[in-house]
Design brief:
The chain has a 9-stranded mixed β-sheet with strand order 3-4-2-5-1-6-7-9-8, with helices on both faces. The protein is of the alpha/beta class. The protein has helices at residues 2-9, 30-44, 64-76, 94-97, 107-111, 141-145, 148-160, 176-182, 198-210, 255-271, and strands spanning 52-57, 82-86, 122-123, 129-132, 163-167, 186-192, 215-221, 230-232, 243-248.
Length: 272
């Protein structure tokens, strides 16, 4: 029992051939990089001992995953030991987005008890940035997240990293994002400019507040996006909280397609 406790408290051992992935990351223009740096600075000034930061959104495709990963990269650039933790078990696009083609094990395998924690932590070409992927799609993400292994993992990474950026599922469609955010020190809500409706954002904000989750701020994403796919701006989010605005075109699906899909889902739900 003592040996098991020590295993959780120690840093991961460095094997002779460490598991490593090399994300293919599209470079950002200056303004978008500065916007991410502003977000990073505001997090650092938001309170003492904020180490685990959840990044979520009201709906899918608002850019939360891109925001989370870019934020993790920015923190790592300060020589801060940073972990990008992908918890969007239902619908992660991290492997395809960053062209990671090797087979990896991830969060779902660990939470099912199939593999130890150390086997799902991957180093990257940035020596200050590690990653944990979602792993296989699981039929019961909420149950896995609510189990004891998730809490053990969060305790471990909190002790062994300067920052842990947690990419969650959107909070309106499923409960996963709220459950995860509850276990973090603070949460950032990503809102896509010109697409997400006010009522949807307010609903997401209320869900987080009802759960007693600390909202650090709102990111207004894809502000003034041009044909090149990049935009930049600042704004305050719908009369509450505070916001940073920036945009970059990492989402492959167009806004019209998003709106069409959402209308179809709303129509289907009304008929059901």
């Amino acid at each position: 029992m003592m040996e098991q406790k020590q295993m959780w408290q120690q840093r991961p051992p460095i094997p002779n051939i460490p598991k490593k992935v090399t994300p293919n990351i599209e470079p950002l223009p200056f303004q978008a990089r500065e916007a991410i740096n502003v977000l990073r600075g505001n997090i650092q000034l938001s309170g003492y001992n904020l180490k685990t930061i959840a990044v979520t959104s009201a709906l899918a495709h608002e850019g939360k995953s891109s925001t989370a990963f870019r934020l993790a990269k920015s923190l790592a650039s300060l020589d801060k030991k940073t972990l990008y933790l992908d918890c969007d078990i239902r619908n992660s696009a991290t492997l395809s987005r960053y062209d990671i083609r090797q087979k990896v094990q991830g969060l779902s395998e660990f939470l099912c008890g199939s593999v130890p924690l150390f086997d799902i932590i991957y180093k990257t070409d940035d020596r200050f940035l590690d990653m944990i992927f979602t792993g296989a799609v699981a039929p019961n993400p909420s149950e896995l997240i609510s189990g004891p292994l998730f809490d053990r993992m969060m305790n471990y990474v909190r002790e062994n990293y300067d920052y842990v950026i947690v990419d969650t599922a959107p909070v309106n469609p499923v409960i996963d994002g709220t459950l995860i955010a509850k276990k973090c020190d603070g949460t950032i809500l990503v809102v896509e400019s010109g697409l997400t409706e006010r009522e949807q954002v307010v609903h997401a904000k209320k869900q987080l507040e009802y759960a007693g989750i600390k909202i650090l701020g709102v990111v207004l994403n894809k502000v003034g996006t041009r044909k090149s796919g990049y935009g930049y701006g600042y704004g305050y989010g719908y009369g509450y909280g505070y916001g940073y605005g920036y945009g970059y075109g990492e989402e492959k699906t167009s806004r019209k397609q998003h709106k069409k899909v959402r209308k179809q889902k709303t129509s289907a739900n009304s008929e059901a």
